[in-house]
Amino acid sequence: MRWILGRSVVLSLAARFIRGVRRDEDGSAHGIISFISSVSIMGLTLGVTALLVVTSVMNGFEKELRNALTSFHAHIILFSRGEPVKDPAKQIADLKKTFPEIRAVAPYVFAEVMLSTKGGVSGAVIEGIEETSFSQASRVPDKIISGRLPRPVPSGSPTSAPAEITLASELALKLKVKPGDDLVLTIPFLGGGGAPYSRHMKVCGIVRLGMYDYDSKYALMALPDAQVMLGMGAGVNAFKILVADADRSQYTAAALNDRYVYPLRARDWSTLNRNLFYAIRLEKAVIGLILFVIILVASFNVVSTIMMLTQEKQRQMAMLRAIGLPPLQAAGVYLTVGGFMAVAGAALGVISGRALCALLQWRSIIDLPADIYLFSRLPVEIRIWEWAAVAAASILLAMVASLWPSWKAARMLPAEGLRHE
């Protein structure tokens, strides 16, 4: 009971100190929120908001980049550095038997080509795909914005019959084509020299892969047509591999490299843009550290607020100490004030940060040049544990900062507080 009464006294005094209750000459009371306390709370709020929003944007950028990589190339690419794989079905069977974590394998061929229309000319990377396995290993079918994936030319068709091609969105924009239009595919040095290879193609679909580097240069055609064009017979020179856990794909890639020494080589999604992912993590750490300084400065504002509060309430606290208020409870009053400001600042920071992130998710405030930043708008990903850690760290930092002035005020003797009265 004594502890409860003491706690209630501490809370009551802290509430009065925070509100800055004053009395007029007629004895009527009125309360105003301390301006200095409000500034300290707003400092914490701005620091927490900035840190949460920036880290969420960096997380979103990393997530979007990862999704763009894995949605097209799956988790692992196994490619040949020499001759094509003559029997892809046998290779796929061996992969699934040896590595049970593999969920899907899509064989394909790729080559650098030139695409031309009346509206323009552009270099491209063409991939010959088998629609069923390709749909299992990648999420490209979900990203088609117009038309469909290419189908092979029916058997018995004349050699002059155009093959179908699906273009990435930015590549289609460069060539100024849409589904149903024609273009010419050219391979300048097919077969190690000689006359260039040319073939008429018909655009059957447009796909947006979500990454400018991919959207500006990739095109898809049916695997049998690509094999005929490249003279590979039934062979392929690469496989897209989908595994059960994307975060462990690097270990599967290492195991694949150990098993298939030559000519096959495996690379997982994280190594395709290793430097970019490293730069994102480094920027996130540096920016987070810089923004955390804002919270540190706001914590010093809490210290100054409590020190000014101790001076303002020196007479009242001295009288309370004189009538029996223990030093620990006196320290608890100022510590409660600091705790209130810390919790209020962190809570308001989380609320305002969530509102700003929701605004960014709903509507793009800043348009980015996609050819530089890979995305045209700011992506956002909220990680609850990260937000909780930032809020807890800001509260803890402000509480620790308020310990020294609270204890110093509690050690003041009643006689010192009433000396000039």
Please describe the topology of this protein.
Layout: H1 2-19, E1 22-23, E2 29-30, H2 35-73, E3 76-80, H3 88-98, E4 102-116, E5 121-129, H4 131-137, E6 144-147, E7 163-168, H5 169-175, E8 182-187, E9 197-207, H6 212-215, E10 218-222, H7 223-230, E11 238-243, H8 249-259, E12 264-268, H9 269-272, H10 274-312, H11 314-322, H12 327-362, H13 370-373, H14 384-401, H15 403-410, H16 414-417
Parallel strand pairs: 5-10, 7-9
Antiparallel strand pairs: 1-2, 3-11, 3-12, 4-5, 4-8, 4-11, 6-9, 7-10, 8-9
Summarize the structure.
This protein has helices at residues 2-19, 35-73, 88-98, 131-137, 169-175, 212-215, 223-230, 249-259, 269-272, 274-312, 314-322, 327-362, 370-373, 384-401, 403-410, 414-417; strands spanning 22-23, 29-30, 76-80, 102-116, 121-129, 144-147, 163-168, 182-187, 197-207, 218-222, 238-243, 264-268.
